Amino acid sequence: MNTTNRRNKNFSDTMEWLTDELADLCDVYGKIPSQRQLAKLNGCSLGTMRKAISALEDRGFLSTRHGHGTFLTQESHVQQQVSAIQENLAVLIPIGTTVTGEPRAFPAYLYEMCLGMKRRAEEFGYNLLLKTFEYDSENKEKQIKEFIHLVNRESCAGVVLSAVWQKDVQQRIYKCGKPGIIADHWAESGVKWDSIEPATADHIEEMITLLVNMGHRKITLFVRENDHNPAILSGYRQALSNLRDEEVAGDLVEIPQRRSLMKDCFLSLVDKWTDSPECPHAIVSPNPSYLDMLNDILKDSSIKIPEDISFVGFPTSTAVISNELSGIIIDWQEFGHECIDKLVERVKDSSKPVEVIKKKFPFQFGETISVRSEVNV
Length: 377
Fold this sequence. Notes:
Elements: H1 11-25, H2 35-42, H3 46-58, E1 62-65, E2 69-72, H4 78-85, E3 88-95, H5 108-123, E4 127-134, H6 140-153, E5 158-162, H7 167-174, E6 180-183, E7 194-198, H8 200-213, E8 218-224, H9 230-242, E9 249-255, H10 259-273, E10 282-285, H11 288-299, E11 310-313, H12 317-322, E12 326-328, H13 332-348, E13 356-359, E14 363-364
Parallel strand pairs: 3-4, 3-5, 5-6, 6-7, 7-13, 8-9, 8-10, 10-11, 11-12
Antiparallel strand pairs: 1-2, 12-14
């Protein structure tokens, strides 16, 4: 019998150990040791062992008889059958391309989200199959077809569309007939899947209200060119409506989607704002890459942060670690966990009403926000 004293075993390790050892551990009646005894033998936490036992019960390999214990139901073929029924979940992620047509690297937040999804899927006993598509290249159609083929070929139990905002892509994947969830976006018309995304409207409203309370009256909101997120605009308008007695001047500035054009846009804005009454008191940026690039450009200008301009948004993990940028801190790994939790619920019970989940996260004060000097506090 292979036992160990090593601690902190994860769910996958524990499942593998159970499928190897349960037939030898049960008594002549097929009864297995208690969860506490099994956790001690395996060297894992009691919580991890409970999840593993529950997973084997869900798959029909164990049955619990109240007052008598838990019993092995198919002791001679546990490992083979558990391995055979291990299911897949498929994830689709959009990525952009460079001016030369090369695919861009994953944004940092999507990497964190996928890491969280992978870990949670493993805890439930699923494999996570990841596929990307280039939303702005001629390869898009081929890659979408490959994903649909993957979902069907691998008999995936469910699908996650992560940050997929294209209506046609959502609708095509939905027609595969699998349970699914839209992560970091909303479900488009005709797509009857659960969706989970940050509470963007509430976050934008919260940040604008905070800036106004700190004395800022001229606030600029960055939005993506030709692709305005309705949640962002909703939070922006709600904040200005609530603060109408404060004489707040709001301004929307469209930022190009191409990174090369993005930098030129920021350089032009900084040149326009330098020594000008048009310079905003504060900037709100929903896109983390805008914050990073603008922060670097402003450091080389005469405009001082945060004395002349405060800016807030949704900082990247690097900025959070350095405590530099101010804004809403989204734990994308935790977000990934919740996506898989919701998808597994849907896989087990497809009859539940469709849910729209808006998840709130905390604000962090960093080095890019301050009280306006004209305001007495």
